[in-house]
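Colleagues,

For the teaching module next term, I've prepared a clean inverse folding example: a structure given as tokens, and then the sequence designed for it. I'd like students to try predicting residues themselves before seeing the answer, so please don't circulate the second half yet.
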């Protein structure tokens, strides 16, 4: 079944024909909803999403179905930016409705299936837009300055991009006039189950990094933190096993991590803090796991801590607030992809499906199942300050490096400073923030970036 959108030449296939019955003669559907039918205006779509969220929160299944019917006449996974974004929000709302009203709602939630990428495909994924590379570039430039003069560097890496950040840093260290330092990278054995996903183990990632470091004549060691009976730090040749967050905390100490006094400790947090719960637990003496993590990494006395994440507040309990924020924020990557990839591009479809997985978690789930609990850059900065860290500015050399990176991408990307943060922007809208921190006791080390 197809319907022609009023005021549009696009004919859109209804994605869920068995779910919705057109509310032609139903007096309950408001004039506001009728007025939005066929409109592709983002503001109108946002209003429809909020109508639907309110209906679900009040268990008004009939109204929720009516609004979804209208959204379904706008949504298209192969349309323009608003249509594609709407299709993922509609999917998330259907998923939520099928859980909160299992006896009354006819929709079925469906898990997004995402294939595993090869390392080569991952590299292309990261290069597609500067969403990840912005943080890599700002952080690596800051690290290079912070570890100046050290002959040993230990990087404790908490990230979701499978160590894609480190070949560039290893290459830069190999070119140091005084010679490269010994480099050790330590990672946890498991990561949040979020894209990007790859078809090799973290151990294989370490072996590949080791081969690259050997090629660049950099002494290199790769370690994986994993649960074991002795709670020791294991090498990459042993089998890994995932462990709960509480177990990870127990490993964050100098003995287990085998820290040395003569090495510069770098702690890298790229898109990581959001996946640590921000809710307080009695087992952590009223501190949330997120705050406990910050306190523990401070106790390790790092030379520098890099914190990179998306600048968006999705931690609020209100569904309607999350929808408003999410819709107006995740428009950015959809719009950026629209500027240079055709509508049927496989790269575009896969990237958007990864964003769709995030949308589904933000909207469909509550409690411990909602793992996307992102805070704004301002909130994250305040959390770090409360944890005893001092924010240090990025230097002009880092700014130049980031600007050179952005010159490789579409003209809509830009960068600005907000206090001591570097902010990646798209058409003037904040998207990703990068910050650098030192323990407050070392606050005299200014301008490390």
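(Answer key — instructors only)
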């Amino acid at each position: 079944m197809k319907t022609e959108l009023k005021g549009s030449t696009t004919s859109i296939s209804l994605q869920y024909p068995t779910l919705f019955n057109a509310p032609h003669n139903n007096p309950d559907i408001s004039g506001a909803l009728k007025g939005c039918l066929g409109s592709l205006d983002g503001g109108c779509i946002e209003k429809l999403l909020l109508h639907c969220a309110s209906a679900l929160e009040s268990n008004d299944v009939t109204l929720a179905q009516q609004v979804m019917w209208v959204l379904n006449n706008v949504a298209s996974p192969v349309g323009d930016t608003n249509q594609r974004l709407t299709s993922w929000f509609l999917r998330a709302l259907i998923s939520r409705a099928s859980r909160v009203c299992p006896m009354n709602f006819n929709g079925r939630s469906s898990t997004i299936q995402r294939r595993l990428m090869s390392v080569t495909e991952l590299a292309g994924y990261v290069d597609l837009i500067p969403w990840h590379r912005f943080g890599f570039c700002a952080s690596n430039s800051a690290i290079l300055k912070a570890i100046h003069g050290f002959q040993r560097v230990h990087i404790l890496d908490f990230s979701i991009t499978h160590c894609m950040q480190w070949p560039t840093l290893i290459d830069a260290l190999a070119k140091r006039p005084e010679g490269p330092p010994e480099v050790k990278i330590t990672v946890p054995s498991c990561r949040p189950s979020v894209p990007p996903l790859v078809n090799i183990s973290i151990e294989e990632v370490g072996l590949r990094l080791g081969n690259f470091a050997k090629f660049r004549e950099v002494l290199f060691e790769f370690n994986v933190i994993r649960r074991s009976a002795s709670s020791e730090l294991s090498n990459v040749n042993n089998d890994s096993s995932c462990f709960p967050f509480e177990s990870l905390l127990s490993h964050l100490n100098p003995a287990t991590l085998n820290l040395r006094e003569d090495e510069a400790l770098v702690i890298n947090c790229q898109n990581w803090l959001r996946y640590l719960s921000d809710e307080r637990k009695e087992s952590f003496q009223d501190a949330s796991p997120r705050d406990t993590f910050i306190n523990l990494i401070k106790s390790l006395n790092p030379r520098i801590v890099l914190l990179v994440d998306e600048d968006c507040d999705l931690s609020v309990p209100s569904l309607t607030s999350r929808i408003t924020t999410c819709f107006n924020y995740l428009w950015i990557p959809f719009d950026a992809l629209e500027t240079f990839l055709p509508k049927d591009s496989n790269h575009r479809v896969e990237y958007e499906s990864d964003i769709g997985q995030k949308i589904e978690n933000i909207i469909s789930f509550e409690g411990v199942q909602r793992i996307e609990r992102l805070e704004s850059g301002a909130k994250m900065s305040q959390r770090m300050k409360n944890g005893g860290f001092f924010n240090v500015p990025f230097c002009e050399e880092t700014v130049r490096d980031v600007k050179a990176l952005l010159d490789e991408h579409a003209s809509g990307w830009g960068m600005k400073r907000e206090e001591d943060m570097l902010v990646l922007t798209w058409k003037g809208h904040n998207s990703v923030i990068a910050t650098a921190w030192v323990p407050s006791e070392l606050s005299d080390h200014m301008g490390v970036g």
